[in-house]
């Protein structure tokens, strides 16, 4: 069998974001961690880490991480059946990637009871809904929530529902920049707020107005910060209806195109060989999501 | 003088997170971008980019980026004095690093009027308050908000005030896990929620209780998601009092140690040679922060 001491060192470096923290978690010296990584690379004949800050797994390293996570999930099933095999009675860590807007709205309510019942600790990684599969493909996470249906090799996907995005801004911003309505205004020169480089929601909205090319925008990689920026009148942006019910009712935000919304489907991707734990979480999400999300249309 | 076409290509690759997007923004082909980077590296005799995904600046590349941003800010002052020098009448982009909890609470209200008045677009980068200076040192940002006072070389720092963090959880969670109060409970085995690997707030709270070593936690890198996780009863955690006034009043969250709070100072770091724009923003923050934050104690 493989030498799992070496693989555990690799996983700790990537998960903890550095050699020093990895050493702390594994109760080893930093030089012991470093030796294990070097030994792993010597056996493999290829580097497993890019020595950046934080260190990043190479393609070969990512394949190994993927394997480590699958083994961990299978070990959990084993401990359930043979509890005496391990003195480790602690909680299981599960890494999932999800979009910030889900984490800021419905996700916690859907998973909290399950985490408590199953004694699971979540390592939640933010990833834009259009690109969440990157981390799934690279083996960094065991499951992910994203807008893409097609699963990566070795995984399955399940449609949980849709989030509906509204184009909104503060009343003052709308008066200043769109006094005669949206169609009359030069949307290209009015600042928007965009979550990050992978967030295409605002771009799609602008294209739907028939405007080609670039527009001006602030970057704000925080769901709550995003709403704060819009309320403060710094720009317009696309926000899940779920997140701004109060702000709309109280008049802190108004829709730019009343009655219009952009649906974004949310697919749950999970490893086929993830064991009972992942299957249990999948079943829990399938049961709870319909009460929290709009129904989705499978393509 | 330096060849700024090459430096602009480097800046675009790092800021846009890839060669393809950099090409789109500069209106060049991807191979033209790639050639410019190679030419820059040939002249420098050292690599400027680690070809990871996304590409990362090497130490030499970071020094160049730092220079590009300073030149951009100085150009803005020039355009103000000699508007005819450039047909580019657009807005200025300013990159700042700040902690997620500021972005989720008081920041937007403090900077929005200034951005509108000065025609500035913000590229906001999230960085934990204990490590925000990393991006300042690496030249990725022109200013940063963090808990550390000591400025990096070439920069100044200014104390804006303090955020006060409370240890909170849902009433149900407290009943289940701390039925006899905090001092009686085994804090090590009760799950916490931690923002990310650099977030030490929960660790400090646990140490103040006299507990040494590790404890169990979920990772949740989203300010709003963090509060949602606590409200859903998945763990306890440290949250700025600013952010949870409503949740405390409505009883969705309760303090673990009523009356206790942990102050975190917020220092504004900005380049000395950042020109009038950065000085204007600094003056605006100094004026507005006292109404939004608790007064800080300079050390």
From TrEMBL, chains A, B:
<keyword id="KW-0804">Transcription</keyword>
<dbReference type="InterPro" id="IPR050176">
    <property type="entry name" value="LTTR"/>
</dbReference>
<dbReference type="InterPro" id="IPR005119">
    <property type="entry name" value="LysR_subst-bd"/>
</dbReference>
<dbReference type="Pfam" id="PF00126">
    <property type="entry name" value="HTH_1"/>
</dbReference>
<dbReference type="InterPro" id="IPR036390">
    <property type="entry name" value="WH_DNA-bd_sf"/>
</dbReference>
<comment type="similarity">
    <text>Belongs to the LysR transcriptional regulatory family.</text>
</comment>
<protein>
    <submittedName>
        <fullName>LysR family transcriptional regulator, chromosome initiation inhibitor</fullName>
    </submittedName>
</protein>
<dbReference type="GO" id="GO:0003700">
    <property type="term" value="F:DNA-binding transcription factor activity"/>
</dbReference>
<dbReference type="InterPro" id="IPR000847">
    <property type="entry name" value="LysR_HTH_N"/>
</dbReference>
<dbReference type="InterPro" id="IPR017685">
    <property type="entry name" value="ArgP"/>
</dbReference>
<feature type="domain" description="HTH lysR-type">
    <location>
        <begin position="2"/>
        <end position="58"/>
    </location>
</feature>
<dbReference type="InterPro" id="IPR036388">
    <property type="entry name" value="WH-like_DNA-bd_sf"/>
</dbReference>
<keyword id="KW-0805">Transcription regulation</keyword>
<dbReference type="GO" id="GO:0003677">
    <property type="term" value="F:DNA binding"/>
</dbReference>
<keyword id="KW-0238">DNA-binding</keyword>
<dbReference type="Pfam" id="PF03466">
    <property type="entry name" value="LysR_substrate"/>
</dbReference>
């Amino acid at each position: 069998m493989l030498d799992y001491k070496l693989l555990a060192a690799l996983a700790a470096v990537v998960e903890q974001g550095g050699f020093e923290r990895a050493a702390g978690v594994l109760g080893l010296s930093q030089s012991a961690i470093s030796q294990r990584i070097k030994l792993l690379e010597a056996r493999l004949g290829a580097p497993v880490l890019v020595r950046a800050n934080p260190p990043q797994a190479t393609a070969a390293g990512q394949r190994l991480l993927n394997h480590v996570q699958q083994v961990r999930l299978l070990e959990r099933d084993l401990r359930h059946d043979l509890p005496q095999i391990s003195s480790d009675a602690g909680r299981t860590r599960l890494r999932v990637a999800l979009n910030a807007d889900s984490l800021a709205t419905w996700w916690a309510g859907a998973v909290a009871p399950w985490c408590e019942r199953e004694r699971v600790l979540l390592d939640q990684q933010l990833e834009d809904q259009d690109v969440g599969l990157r981390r799934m493909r690279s083996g960094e996470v065991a499951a992910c929530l994203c807008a893409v249906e097609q699963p990566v090799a070795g995984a399955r996907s399940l449609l949980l529902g849709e989030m509906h995005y509204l184009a909104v801004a503060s009343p003052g911003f709308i008066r200043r920049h769109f006094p005669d309505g949206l169609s009359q205004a030069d949307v290209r020169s009015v600042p928007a707020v965009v979550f990050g480089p992978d967030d295409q929601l605002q771009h799609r909205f602008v294209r739907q107005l028939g405007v080609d090319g670039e527009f001006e925008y602030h970057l704000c990689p925080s769901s709550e910060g995003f709403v704060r920026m819009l309320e403060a009148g710094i720009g317009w942006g696309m926000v899940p209806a779920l997140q701004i019910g109060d702000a709309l009712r109280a008049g802190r935000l108004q829709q730019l195109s009343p009655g219009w919304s952009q649906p974004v489907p949310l697919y749950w991707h999970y490893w086929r060989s993830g064991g009972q734990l992942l299957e249990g979480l999948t079943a829990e999400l399938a049961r709870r999501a319909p009460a929290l999300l709009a129904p989705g249309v499978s393509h």
